[in-house]
UniProtKB/TrEMBL annotation:
Pathway annotation: Carbohydrate biosynthesis; dTDP-L-rhamnose biosynthesis
Catalyzed chemical reaction(s): dTDP-beta-L-rhamnose + NADP(+) = dTDP-4-dehydro-beta-L-rhamnose + NADPH + H(+)
GO molecular function per UniProt: dTDP-4-dehydrorhamnose reductase activity
Organism from which the protein derives: Pseudalgibacter alginicilyticus
Purpose: Catalyzes the reduction of dTDP-6-deoxy-L-lyxo-4-hexulose to yield dTDP-L-rhamnose.
Protein name: dTDP-4-dehydrorhamnose reductase
Keyword NADP: yes
Length: 262
């Protein structure tokens, strides 16, 4: 029998990519995609009745507050979605026996470790976005037994949303010179690869519930990534890249964001 899979936050870069890849051609899965206007995860009663009316086998939660800079200024908005909204989802999943696949972030770590982070490493977020995402993880672990928390890093889509990849392309078209930081190292992750991994969790029933790390394999600085993006798009001759140690931001970011995939 087909499995019913709900995808929340479907208008974001991950939600749109899962839709594009799997909504029509994935044998064995019946997807329901809902955007925030259809299902707001912060509206608890609504959410719980939606789950009870539809009965899903899995919920892939792509809904999140992802503006790392703005989260420093209005952290309550980040907590409302990334912590309280996720708690509501976990409760809805518990009540309806739905397996939750939730996406979390490298920013739950402080970045002081000298090696890649494993799923068991101690968390210690250094910005409000990371703190709110960690609180979401804690709620899930407290409420559910049947869940996957997939931590990923430096997610980008070439087609959808606001991400570093698309920001650099846009900037390269309008600016003569770009200053890019070498202060952080991480693994940029193509949202297509993450989408495939997420769906593989549903297909491979032997994978254990709990926290998993998934990122693309190549570690680099944001400067290196910008260089690759320009090359990829034949824009290297259009704009000069300048290495900077610090790029001024509101939020602190972990120096080492590399996740060890198991
Ligand atoms: N982007 C990144 O670099 C990384 C992301 N992640 C995690 O991956 C997941 C997917 O991220 P990504 O696709 O990039 O995020 P996006 O910001 O592209 O998408 C988030 C989606 O969530 C929706 N949303 C916001 N609030 C609510 C709400 N209350 N109820 C329902 N939907 C809501 C947004 O809708 P609207 O736009 O209408 O507000 C948007 O469609 C997130 O959990 C994120 O934390 C992890 C590591 C890296
Ligand atoms: C745009 C820009 C950014 N930077 C710096 C700022 C920052 O240190 C780093 C990354 O910038 P961004 O603000 O684009 O990326 P940021 O929003 O920090 O990306 C993060 O998003 C959240 C949602 C996650 O979960 C993380 O995994 C990570 O992908 O690059 C430059 O040095 N030059 C630039 O021109």
């Amino acid at each position: 029998m087909n499995k019913n899979v709900l995808v929340t936050g479907a208008s974001g870069q991950l939600g749109k990519t899962i839709h594009e890849l799997f909504s029509e051609n994935n044998i064995g899965l019946d997807f329901t995609f809902v955007i925030k206007q259809e299902l707001d995860i912060t509206r608890r009663e609504n959410l719980i009745s939606f789950f009870n009316q539809n009965m899903f086998d899995y919920c892939i939660n792509c809904a999140a507050y992802t503006n790392v800079e703005q989260a420093e200024i209005t952290p309550e908005s980040a907590y409302k979605i990334n912590a309280e909204g996720v708690k509501n989802l976990a409760e809805a999943c518990k009540e309806t026996n739905t397996i939750l696949i939730h996406i979390s972030t490298d920013y739950v770590f402080d970045g002081e470790k000298k090696e890649p982070y494993t799923a068991d490493d101690v968390t210690n977020p250094i910005n409000e976005y990371g703190k709110s995402k960690l609180q979401g993880e804690i709620y899930i672990k407290d409420i559910l037994s049947n869940y996957f928390i997939v931590r990923t890093s430096w997610l980008y889509s070439k087609k959808y949303g606001n991400n570093f990849y698309r920001t650099i392309i846009n900037k390269a078209k309008t600016e003569k010179q770009l200053s890019i930081t070498t202060e952080q190292i991480g693994c940029p992750t193509d949202v297509v690869n993450l989408s495939n991994y997420i769906v593989s969790l549903i297909h491979q029933e032997s994978i254990q519930f709990g926290i998993h790390h998934f990122s693309d394999k190549k570690a680099m600085t944001w400067y290196d990534f910008a260089e690759e993006i320009l090359k990829d798009n034949n824009l290297s001759s259009e704009v000069k890249l300048v290495m900077v140690k610090k790029y001024r931001t509101f939020a602190r970011r972990p120096k080492n964001s590399v996740l060890k995939n198991l």
